[in-house]
């Protein structure tokens, strides 16, 4: 019997350290001439964009470099629950290209402050109305996954799910510490099912187009959406655009990392239990593997990534290199002890191995030889890490560490 909640995948799953095959990680400082880069300038000039490009062509797909027309419609909500310590706004994004249009709604919760505030930005899984019980918050208009727990039938959200995921969003804590929170339902950008890349953002760029092996999958579209929110922040004087922390849990942590790698405007990047295709090393094959993720989620990555099903040794990059693309910006990796499917040790090792690039900048990455004890966060370097007790989730404990890390690195 497997300890994993995902029983759908019937292949043997490695869940013991002594079953991890031997593997070699790509040397993230190695140039094509066999010499290693020795300075931050050399890394930036010779390796950084090449590494990013390999992630684009072999893993997530290319984010099209094409303009879209975006308009924002802002609405200050009459939120009853927050009136003593903050404000809630909804910003409706209309995103247009070649006569096609999609709409997405950003929920922006800000503390009362006289100067621009730093914000945390992250997608939610079930709709903005699920992150906080305030009745003024709108339900999504786009497709939502059917779920008895969330009362979703026929892909329509239910008002009964207001606040149902509030344990994942430490709203009061965030505001009290002087940060804002911005969140968007990820399905507004691209609905999370395999529809042949027709709907969501794909409808703006690639309708009726034959799909190339490096065309973007859904993770890349979600990353793209985060950058469009960053564009909006640049227009809003209430927000300190130099202190935007992008974060995500699980599949949305994969998206946050790819967004941070692509868009240097994000000042700090946080991965919570992002696992395979996120912070965890693929070559360890522990827990979720490349084949497992491509089988269950054929729309998340680009076609090329499927070449590495049961073939991780051939992958030209691994996820420590994705984390290294954040340098010199701070990055945080959070694991959970019972979340073996996401390979906590693989997440730790990626964070540790990314440190070599931070060293080029004269910065401390993650200075730990071995995995730390459970519930002992390490936030003194530019790569933060903790493994908390418990299951795959985003909790108040995680938020507390992210806030401490943001205070330490950005203030
Ligand atoms: C799982 C998937 C993981 C992770 C998770 C989630 O089914 O295997 O990679 O993304 O979903 O997003 O909660």
The dominant shape is: globular
| Mean pLDDT reading | 95
Largest sheet: 9 strands, mixed
Global Rg: 20 Å
Strand content: 15-25%
Q: Could you give the count of β-strands?
A: 9
Q: Give the topology string: H per helix, E per strand.
A: HEEEEHEHHEHEHHEHEH
Helix content: 25-40%
Low-confidence stretches: none
- Spatial gap, N to C terminus: 48 Å
Enumerate the distinct ligands.
beta-D-galactopyranuronic acid
Structural class: alpha/beta
Strand order of the largest sheet: 1-2-3-5-4-6-7-8-9
Number of helices: 9
Please give the structural blueprint.
Elements: H1 40-60, E1 69-76, E2 86-97, E3 100-111, E4 117-124, H2 171-176, E5 180-185, H3 202-205, H4 218-233, E6 239-249, H5 251-262, E7 268-272, H6 290-296, H7 319-324, E8 331-336, H8 344-360, E9 383-388, H9 396-410
Parallel strand pairs: 4-5, 4-6, 6-7, 7-8, 8-9
Antiparallel strand pairs: 1-2, 2-3, 3-5
Bound molecules: beta-D-galactopyranuronic acid.
Beta-D-galactopyranuronic acid binds at residues 6, 250-251, 275-276, 288, 293.
